[in-house]
Structures are given as structure tokens and as C-alpha cells.
TrEMBL record:
Compositional bias ranges of the Basic and acidic residues kind: 290-320, 332-346
InterPro entries, per the entry: NTF2-like_dom_sf (IPR032710), Pathogen-related_defense (IPR053218)
SUPFAM superfamilies (alphabetical): NTF2-like
Organism annotation: Bimuria novae-zelandiae CBS 107.79
Region (Disordered): 232-273, 289-355
Name of this protein: Pathogen-related protein
């Protein structure tokens, strides 16, 4: 084939070939005025990863794409600066929840957007700043890698791993607004999950659907369930409340169950009947008249004998006392819209229409 007939394959975008591609962006708005430093996280990744993907292989490209996306989602507050997503179609969802757009993550923060309220942490009582204090202080480096890729573009499904070391105490707000803290144990925190993502021709993310167990992380943070809970001043911004020394420890000592025999319930039997009479009389219910006593009188059931096809008497059937059929309705039934209406023991035929 002539050289003129050959076309070079389009170059891959840098955000799938270089895990630090977007960190080199200059003409963008960085959250804290400059690009963040990921050098320590990259060192931990290189030293403790369990996979070693071949350069430019599909797992390697997916891994780099997600790493660059995480940097942009966390540190680029202007959505138009994100290069890793399809601006018009992008959405994400966690554990089958309703899809959200990128603005939701920008407002809530990456941690708040993916963690549901629980006894250790709640996005309802945390903002972007406090969420980063909670997790980045506890675990200064939180590396991420792709374990397996199950399908290629445009729908990319893969399993991943997120890990680090709990070097400092965990401090966050739970679903009751309480300040929860757990002592650092110096051990590893390692979670895994599955993601199904779609990408466009430029390998930009269009949708992200992720499934993982966030409680797995908290079970590793407090393996024995031992935490300290404190009430805080909710007038303070969450980031300030995390650092505020003004707290009140909450007593978590289990209280003994009260003996049921010692419980005395109020006696309401004496006034119940009189109260009912007064209430019904005052209400003037149109179905019972204005006499309260009539409301306590049960309806008198009327009995109709069921006639069986063999001519023998059947069981007694009670007619409904409140819904007699009109003569016109009975005539309609007799005309054939309902067979054997006259034999229905629940329908009382007026004598003028009886057979």
C-alpha cells in the first residue's frame, strides 16, 4: 500500500497515557491557587501496588484516565477546565443511586458525593473543606489502581482497589451531627469496588456507575467499633467545628432495660366511653344521626339463605346493610349484564321484581 494511502492512528490524549497529565495544566483555575502535589501518593502507589500493567495496555489507560479525573474533580472548581469528561453528557451514580452531574460533585465534594450518611460519617453535616480534613488528615496518601478490566470502549467495566495507611486519628461528623473520632491504629485501609463507565471517541468520561461498600472502610478505621462521640457547636462551619476544642462528650454507656412490671400505664377506661359519646354528639355524624348512642349500636345483619344447584339449602349469608341495590340496577342485571342476578344471596330483590 502506498504511503499516501496510509493514515496514522490518532494520538491518544495525554490524560490516558500519563497519570499526572492534568497536574501540568497551567491556564486553569486551581482550587488553592496551584496544582496539588501528588508525589507522595504516586510513591506509595509504586511501592505497594499489586498489579503491574503493561504500558499503553487497556488497564493502564483506564487507570490513568481515572487518576486524572480524580485530580480534576477534587481540585478544579471550574467545570470548563475539566479535560477528562464529556461536558454535555457526563453523569455519575453510586450504588444504584440517581445519576448526578458534575456540578453536584463540585458543590458537595468527592467524598460527600460518594458516601451515604452512616454512624461514622455524613455528608449532611460536612462540606467540601471538612470532608478533605476528615480523610486526608487521617490517611495522607490514598493510592488507587485498576485490578481488572472486563470490557473495552465505549463501555469500560473494571474492578479497582483504593488503599492507604491510617496514620492519624479519624475525626468526622456522623448522621446525627455528632463529632466522631477513632484512634489511629497505623494499619492499612484497603477497599475495592466495581465501575462501569462509558467514554466518547476522545476517551472522555460520559457516565460513571460505581458500586462499593463504603462501610468496609469505616469497619477498618474502627475495627472494634470503638469511637468517641461528642456534641459540637453547629453554628460553626463544619471545617471549623472539626478543629474546635469546645465539645461535650456523649455518654454511650448502655442503659439497663426497664422492668415491664414497674411500668404503670394511665387508666383511660373510665373516661373513654363518655368522651366518645361527647365527641360523636358534637360531630353530628350524618350516618348515625345526632344521637351519640346510635353510633354505638351495631347494624342489624340481615340473613339470606343460599340456594345450591342441587336444591339443598346452603349456608347462611349476611347481606351488606349499607348498600341496597336500586331497582334500576337490579333490572339491568336481570337483562343479562350479569347472569343469575336474582339467585345472588347478597342481592335483596324488591317484592315487585321478585320471581
Amino acid at each position: 500500500m502506498a504511503a499516501a494511502d496510509t493514515q496514522a492512528a490518532p494520538a491518544l490524549p495525554d490524560y490516558v497515557t500519563d497519570p499526572d497529565a492534568v497536574l501540568k495544566d497551567t491556564d486553569v483555575n486551581w482550587r488553592y491557587g496551584r496544582a496539588p502535589d501528588y508525589s507522595k501518593t504516586r510513591e506509595v502507589f509504586a511501592e505497594t501496588k499489586i498489579m503491574n500493567h503493561e504500558a499503553l495496555s487497556l488497564p493502564h489507560l483506564v487507570e490513568n484516565l481515572v487518576k486524572n479525573w480524580e485530580v480534576e474533580a477534587s481540585f478544579k472548581p471550574t467545570l470548563s477546565d475539566w479535560r477528562t469528561i464529556d461536558q454535555e453528557k457526563y453523569s455519575f451514580a453510586i450504588n444504584g443511586s440517581d445519576p448526578q452531574d458534575a456540578y453536584y460533585m463540585l458543590k458537595q465534594g468527592t467524598y460527600n458525593a460518594i458516601i451515604a450518611p452512616n454512624e461514622y460519617y455524613s455528608p449532611e453535616y460536612s462540606d467540601f473543606a471538612s470532608s478533605h480534613k476528615t480523610f486526608k488528615r487521617m490517611m495522607p496518601t490514598f493510592a488507587w489502581e485498576v485490578l481488572e478490566v472486563y470490557s473495552g470502549p465505549p463501555t469500560v467495566s473494571f474492578r479497582w482497589r483504593h488503599w492507604g495507611v491510617m496514620k492519624n486519628d479519624y475525626v468526622g461528623f456522623n448522621n446525627k451531627g455528632e463529632k466522631v473520632s477513632a484512634k489511629a491504629h497505623g494499619g492499612a485501609i484497603d477497599i475495592q469496588g466495581v465501575t462501569v463507565a462509558t467514554v466518547n471517541e476522545a476517551l472522555q468520561l460520559q457516565s460513571i456507575r460505581t458500586w462499593f461498600d463504603p462501610m468496609d472502610m469505616f469497619r477498618q478505621i474502627a475495627p472494634n467499633g470503638v469511637v468517641k462521640k461528642e456534641a459540637v457547636d453547629k453554628s460553626l462551619p463544619p471545617g471549623d467545628a472539626l478543629d474546635s476544642p469546645v465539645t461535650a462528650e456523649i455518654d454511650q454507656t448502655p442503659r439497663p432495660a426497664q422492668d415491664a412490671n414497674e411500668t404503670t400505664l394511665p387508666d383511660r377506661t373510665k373516661s373513654a366511653a363518655g368522651d366518645a359519646q361527647e365527641l360523636m354528639a358534637a360531630a353530628g355524624c350524618p350516618f348515625v344521626g345526632h344521637d351519640g348512642k346510635a353510633a354505638n349500636k351495631p347494624y342489624e345483619p340481615r340473613v339470606a339463605m343460599e340456594t345450591r344447584e342441587d336444591g339443598k339449602e346452603g349456608e347462611n349469608k349476611f347481606e351488606h346493610p349499607n348498600a341496597p341495590l336500586s331497582e334500576g340496577t337490579i333490572e339491568t342485571l336481570r337483562e343479562g349484564k350479569q347472569e343469575d342476578a336474582e339467585r345472588d344471596p347478597y342481592v335483596k330483590m324488591p317484592e315487585s321484581l321478585g320471581s
